[in-house]
Design goal:
single chain, 218 residues, mainly alpha, Tetracycline Repressor, domain 2, 75% helix, elongated
Amino acid sequence: MTMDSGPVRKRRRREAEKVSKADISRERVLIAAARIFSVRGYAGTTMRDIAKGAGLQAGSLYYYYPSKDLLIEAVLDMGIHGVSNAVYSTIAGLPPSTTYADRIRAAVLAHLQSVLEFGDYALASRRVLGQVPPDVRRKHVLRRDAYGDFWVKLLEAARGAGELRDDVDLKLARTFILGALNSALEWYRPDGMSIDEVASQFNAMISDGLFRLPRAEG
């Protein structure tokens, strides 16, 4: 052991604690920003409002996010990545033998769970997307469209496997599914049906509309 190993360890511990505290503060800022943006919109929200909501001095906020544009971009990213990554990882974790009907059912549940978990971020996106600077909006739309393309490809694969009806327009189906799931942000209440029950109801309606009926034994 070298003579300076003790001081080195202490310095590294202090650095790790500093990073941890910075991450916690950054998360607090994002939570406060998402909540305030979702209520007041982009134009109606100031950095001072967000600093107050996060329990920080106004000047401290700029250490984490030097501008409102960077902050709203981080909020939008948190919403789309939180939902899309949950769905991607759910599908990736299924056995290869999983039917596409079951893959879609799993994706529906994962999307619903995560969109409600990241509710303020998703609501902020719906509220402010038309108000944010064009460059921020363009980046978010690209990320949102990439997630939408994932759903279209999932539906295409279901059709290729012979599970999906031939007369279904896949882009319309994608819009119907995601629109219905995202609407839960407006009406879902934890004291009503569970998220699993809501997802089951959605899946029943989706299955009836999209998938081929089993052939009758004859």
